[in-house]
Amino acid sequence: MSETQLGKRRVVIVGGGAGGLELATRLGDKYGRRGKLDITLIERDRTHVWKPKLHEIAAGSMDVAAHEVDYLAQSYWHGFRYRIGEMIGIDRSRRQVEVAPYLDAEGREVTPKRFIDYDFLVVAIGSLNNDFGTPGVLDHAIKLESQADARRFHERMVNACIRAHAQSLPLGAHQLKVAIIGAGATGVELSAELHRTTREVVAYGLDQVDPQKDIKITLIEAADRVLPALPERVSKETEKLLAKLGVDVLVGAKVSAVASDHVGLTDGRTIPAELIVWAAGVKAPDFLKDIGGLETNRINQLVVRPTLQTTRDDNIFAIGDCSACSWGEHGTVPPRAQAAHQQSSHLCSQIPQLLQGKPLKDYRYRDFGSLVSLGKFSTVGSMMGALVGGNLVFEGMFARMMYLSLYKMHEYALHGPVKVALDTLARLINRRTEPHVKLH
């Protein structure tokens, strides 16, 4: 079965993350509504949540309903088509994307295998954590790669607290212990959020649990400091804040194996844990390796030229975490939400040249630095990044406001100024009346 739209140039975007959904929305608003382009977004999930917020879902500190975007509704209001499913192949000779059958939770087929035609294809499927083949990770650790992962972790966290409260026997050595492997932004942010939310869960009446004595969070990092990709001063300030929260930070600690109730380190130590999160390493999905004969690197990213076109096909682009785009002496563009946002904007601006067959302008990554949220406690980061040598390091309320502004930029790209303003006001009002932690 093939979906073919005649009479218009067809742009197919695979992946509804920060870059893909922003691009589909921009193109739909600018060209789709006016009938100048036929735009299709292929995505396996039904709703979108900004990936940097997954740790808040896992900790239970975010009302998902207030932040998620329904793809079908977004496509209706912004002039593009949403097709549920997962890309499994590219036929470059026929210019078709192969989409796997979509099955519901009971295993029933919702949509059959399909082939969707394109004139221009944009791959924006994001990235996954790289477990480097560490034994036990797939069986015993949770990776925060999707909303489902985050919800699963949250449910297990709440159940662990309820179980500890209800049991008559003393707690096991691993009970109410959380081990987070990888002290990048996700690991650091999750450890800080969990410190607060686990205590608030217990405060809802689970009085047989002593949060100070029973709950323990350990952050494990193979490098010699937390946030190894950021300036050293940011790492030091973050580690001090985590220590104040009671988070145990182990640096220079390499994981050898993961079991159901502990994490084993290469130096022989074991870290007891009931909940284990793997938040280390980054790679593109395995199925992307050499897909359609396109060039990929060792972590499965599609190699692109400065125009964001893949090296072996001018009609196929890649943006976001799944794209290996050169950043000069710095290597490749880092897998950050700001990069996906910038690449989406750049590619949208190049559509007139693309349609007219004119040369495309090169994309240049602008590094505005990195920010890490420690929940309500603090935000730390470095602004302007490589533009000023990464020396502008700060923390506190100003950093918190800058962190929030990054998310507002994403919301603005999806919804425009009026809706963002009204939604922000509604969230501020609801925050005063709703519980701080979600128990479901």
Descriptive report:
This protein is of the alpha/beta class and 440 residues long. It has 13 helices and 26 strands. Strands 6-3-2-12-22-21 form a 6-stranded mixed β-sheet. The chain has a 4-stranded mixed β-sheet with strand order 1-11-8-7, with no helix packed on it. The chain has a 4-stranded parallel β-sheet with strand order 15-14-13-19. Helix 1 runs parallel beside helix 10 and helix 12 packs across helix 13. The chain starts with a strand and ends in a 9-residue tail after the last helix.
Sequence-ordered SSE layout with sheet pairings:
Elements: E1 2-3, E2 9-14, H1 18-32, E3 37-43, E4 47-48, H2 54-59, H3 64-67, E5 69-70, H4 71-78, E6 81-84, E7 87-91, E8 96-99, E9 102-103, E10 109-111, E11 114-117, E12 120-123, H5 137-140, H6 147-166, E13 177-181, H7 185-203, H8 211-214, E14 216-221, H9 232-245, E15 248-251, E16 255-258, E17 262-265, E18 270-272, E19 275-278, E20 302-303, E21 309-310, E22 313-318, E23 323-324, H10 337-349, H11 351-355, E24 369-373, E25 379-383, E26 392-395, H12 397-415, H13 417-431
Parallel strand pairs: 1-11, 2-3, 2-12, 3-6, 12-22, 13-14, 13-19, 14-15, 20-23
Antiparallel strand pairs: 4-5, 7-8, 8-11, 9-10, 16-17, 17-18, 21-22, 24-25, 25-26
